[in-house]
Design a protein that fits this description.
Number of helices: 21
Strand content: under 5%
Order of helices and strands: HHHHHHHHHHHHHHHHHHHHHEE
Largest sheet: 2 strands, antiparallel
Radius of gyration: 23 Å
Distance between the termini: 37 Å
Shape: globular
Structural class: mainly alpha
Helix content: 55-70%
Strand order of the largest sheet: 1-2
Number of strands: 2
Length: 513
């Protein structure tokens, strides 16, 4: 299988051969891993029993899917990833906000997956063959998992899709065996000596709904477009893509998370998950557990690393996707070592997901508002201006940024960070919310409301971009020619300007994005 060469450029129609079933496969198979399973342990570590854990996880996940899933429709129309697509609303340079948010989200989840997966691998090998469990062993195991992940990510979407399809079947069977393996020790009550993390039930339940439930779908706010850009709107309706995305997110997140809750209670894993999980496993399940830890970690972290490579490729247009992927693989591995040797899992996970949720939610809300306003009509060529090192075009706005969208996001993110409650940091607005973490609600509401107020209705992206882009400096590098809007036209194999394949016609009356 050849290595994928395509970065964040527009995917030609001929290559858009995936469909809704592929979306379900990739969202299901890639999430059946310990990096997602461990989020089901979080409610247990917060002091909740079975039913409180289950209801908080399901509630948060459902809410997250409602907000996140529609983002999949954007790349269905633009044929590029979501960060680049957000340039229609933030500007072709302002879309770097989405790239940075996506890079941080993927970096954290990649490191978390390798960290938890590596710990379980070391623990199972220690029981199976007596492998020492010191720092050197962890270092070797982390490095091997990271290497496998990097290979999968470098080969790209097609290999990751095949891997996800295999994992959807294999990991389902391994998790089903796991339920049998831990059934004898299962209990519905909270783990002894694990008090409510926030002192009382409802604040802790709400924290669980955000940290363990909502954070799952939010992790995909920039990832969904990596997959739907390979789906053709000429062959598949938006309704079928949205339905497949909702199904894939719901099943792909709830199955592993609820498995994590059940096994955490069975293993009495109040303070840690990996160690008690391995210790409580019957001998016959150690080999399946080892397979789940290795294959599942490579599949999930591979997709996250693939997305990171695309985001870095978008930030640094001069880099190739392959080089960008290898760079972020090294950074993610460094974060694994940092997390293992300097922090505990509960503190690191809770702080990370709450902070990134507060930052990412207003970006997602603003992007969705823009998508609704433009009725899903985009100019794919104009979205690629920054990638081609050109200037001008429909989405140039002011020097490549949409100031009001960027300011709306920044204020929304700032409010969210001021209202967050983590084991490492508590925002000053908690005094106004009764100590309850409402960061994601406030960040999304403030960012979205500001954007809706500061931009002049349906024509915000279309008319402003058209007028400002028309007057912008359209200079391009010596090796390119500017297209009519200041966008350098894509070049075909013989050097002739080439239209964006599969482009959806954009409205010229101001109704477009």
């Amino acid at each position: 299988m050849p290595i994928e060469q395509r970065g964040v450029d527009t995917v030609p129609e001929a290559e858009r051969t995936s469909g809704p079933r592929d979306l379900v496969s990739i969202l299901l198979g890639s999430n059946l891993c310990l990096g997602v399973i461990v989020f089901g342990w979080l409610p247990v570590s917060f002091g909740l029993g079975l039913w409180a854990s289950v209801t908080s996880v399901i509630t948060g996940t459902l809410l997250g899917v409602v907000v996140t899933a529609p983002l999949a429709l954007i790349s269905l129309r633009t044929a590029t990833n979501l960060s680049t697509s957000s340039g229609a609303f933030f500007g072709v340079r302002g879309r770097l906000v989405g790239s940075v948010v996506g890079l941080l989200l993927s970096l954290g989840y990649t490191a978390l997956t390798l960290w938890i997966g590596g710990d379980v691998v070391v623990g199972t090998l220690a029981r199976l063959v007596g492998l020492p469990t010191g720092g050197a062993t962890h270092t070797v195991v982390y490095a091997l998992l990271a290497a496998g992940t990097a290979v999968a990510a470098v080969y790209g979407y097609r290999l990751l899709l095949r891997l996800s399809k295999a994992l959807a079947v294999g990991m389902t069977l391994l998790l089903a065996l796991g339920l049998l393996a831990y059934a004898g020790d299962f209990t519905t009550g909270p783990v002894p000596d694990t008090p409510y993390l926030l002192g009382s039930f409802w604040p802790t339940w709400l924290l669980s709904a955000v940290a363990a439930g909502l954070s799952g779908p939010v992790a995909f706010i920039t990832l969904l477009g990596d997959y739907t850009r390979y789906v053709s709107p000429a062959r598949h309706s938006g309704r079928s893509v949205l339905g497949a995305t909702c199904l894939g997110l719901l099943v792909g997140l709830l199955v592993p998370q609820l498995f994590g809750t059940v096994t955490a209670l069975a293993a009495r894993g109040g303070l840690d998950y990996a160690g008690p999980l391995v210790a409580a496993s019957p001998a016959w399940y150690l080999v399946p557990l080892l397979l789940a830890a290795t294959a599942g970690s490579v599949g999930n972290a591979g997709l996250m690393l693939y997305s990171m490579g695309l985001d870095l490729d978008a930030i640094l247009p001069g880099a190739t996707r392959t080089r960008a992927t290898l760079v972020v693989a090294g950074v993610a591995t460094a974060f694994v070592f940092l997390g293992h040797f300097t922090s505990d899992a509960q503190t690191a996970m809770t702080s990370f997901v709450l902070l990134l949720t507060a930052i990412g939610t207003p970006w997602a809300v603003i992007t969705l508002i823009g998508h609704v306003r433009c009725a899903g009509r985009y100019d794919p060529e104009a979205l690629q201006v920054h990638n081609r090192r050109a200037r001008g075009g429909r989405y140039w706005f002011s020097a490549g940024w949409h100031p009001r969208a960027t300011v709306s996001w920044a204020i929304g993110a700032g409010v969210g960070l001021a209202a967050v409650s983590t084991p490492l940091y508590e925002g000053p607005l908690l005094a106004l919310t009764g100590g309850i973490d409402c960061s994601f609600v406030l960040s999304g509401a403030v960012g979205g409301a500001l954007y809706a107020t500061l931009t002049p209705g349906r024509t915000a992206a279309g008319e402003e971009a058209a007028h400002e882009g028309a007057s912008a400096d359209a200079d391009t590098p010596p090796d390119g020619e500017a297209s009519p809007g200041g966008t350098r036209a894509a070049r075909g194999p013989e050097g002739r300007p080439e239209a964006a394949p599969g482009a959806v016609p954009v409205a010229r009356d101001g109704a477009g994005a």
